[in-house]
Amino acid sequence: MSETGPPLALSIVVPVYNEEGNVEPLHGELTQVARQLGRPYELVFVNDGSRDGTLARLMALRARDESLRIVELDGNFGEAAALSAGFAHARGALVVTLDGDGQNDPADIPRLLARLGPELDVVSGRRSERQEAFLSRVLPSRIANWLIARATGVPVHDTGCGLKVYRREVVAGAQLPRGMNRFLPAVLGVRPTRVAEEWVNDRRRGSGRSHYGLSRAFAVLRDLPALPVLVRLPRRGLAFGRALGAAPVALVGGLLLAILAGLGWPAGLVPALLAWFATLLAAAVGAAIAHDVGRWARAREHGVFRVRRTL
Ligand code: UDP
Ligand code: MG
Fold it and tell me: Are residue 60 and residue 86 in the same domain, yes or no?
């Protein structure tokens, strides 16, 4: 973490992995918006182990822009890790994040910033008129968002939108395990009443293609049972999470045994099968929670990214 230089009002953090066709136009748009805001700012591009010309393009931009900082990771650690690295290096009082592929519109940034009054910690973008296929992208994302909002208690409609504004205290020190970027800002432990949403423009990807397919829907389902625990971890600590991770298995298992005993098991095929199914489900949920609490603990302990150099 760099502590030198004058205090900055704003850090704009952009994770990039193989975005060689997108970094230049995005840098241009961000610079224009940031200058119009008229506050001291920095652009923090986190190169997440790109194998294409992304880094070279960033270096060329850096040569003529002092506001641009490049955090070069020591490999491809994933979007959640790249964001965590950006948070660790951001020096601004406010931290904006957005995707590096041009899908988010920098022109929305001033409106999100204006919305972030003293009563709020986060303003999250909500994409209107999504530019992606309805059945394979938009519908799964709607269902996922509904479930995520219920599981976390943070009523955000579009948690997958990369464009968000945070107070720096909220993101400082975050070490997000793989995939947890999908549950921002809830997994940072923010209070639901301190989060607001703002409609934002959704554009087509500049060039290249998305890094994710439908498999991410399964990843979301797997992480879902752990969310009520994970959102409380930042404030309550890991011991609390471990206890809760074991609780569903113990509770439901014990309950089932009691019911089975009451039924005089084996009383018949159907109740026995139902009981087994319920036990398996409870075990799967418990295991999913324990798995994610474990990932969270390892992320806290070891960090989720390695920096090769900062420029
Ligand atoms: N990204 C990254 N590391 C990865 C995968 C993605 O830094 O391993 C970046 C990517 O370059 C982009 C952002 O994360 O700036 C969102 O990725 P993408 O546009 O592929 O996701 P989608 O918009 O399809 O959800
Ligand atoms: Mg994208």
Answer: yes
Residue 186 covered by a domain: yes
* Domain range enclosing 254: 235-299
- pLDDT of 268 > 50? The answer is yes
Prediction pTM value: 0.91
Whether the predicted pLDDT of 157 surpasses 60: yes
132 and 263 housed in the same domain: no
Minimal CA–CA distance to 173: which of 194, 163, 192, 188?
188
Query: What are the two backbone dihedrals, phi and then psi, of residue 124, each rounded to the nearest 5 degrees?
Result: -110, 135
Exposure letters 65-104 (e unless 16+ CB within 10 A, then b):
eebbbbbbbeebbbbbbbbbbbbbbbbbebbbbbbbbbbb
Where is pLDDT greater, at 287 or 130?
A: 287
Closest approach atom of ligand 1 to CA 48: 7
Residue 39 is which amino acid?
Answer: R
Same domain for 88 and 223, yes or no, is yes
The structural domain count of the chain equals 2
In terms of phi and psi (left: phi > 0; alpha: psi -120 to 50; beta: otherwise), the region of 78 is left
Q: Give the other-Cβ count within 10 Å of 37's Cβ.
A: 13
Give 99 Cα–ligand 2 centroid separation in angstroms: 6
Of residues 273 and 186, more confidence is placed in 186
Q: How close are the terminal C-alpha atoms of the chain, in Å?
A: 13
Cβ pair 124, 159 in contact under 8 A: yes
Do residues 125 and 273 both lie within one domain?
no
* Gyration radius of the chain over CA positions: 22
Same domain flag for 203 and 67? yes
The 3-state DSSP composition of the chain as helix, strand, coil percent (nearest 5) reads 50, 15, 30
Q: How far is the CA of 210 from the centre of ligand 2 (A)?
A: 6
User: Chain centroid to CA 124: how far?
Assistant: 12
Q: Indicate if ligand 1 lies below 6 Å from the C-beta of 103.
A: yes
Gap from CA of 43 to ligand 1 centroid (Å):
17
Of 227, 257, 279, which marks where a domain is finished?
227
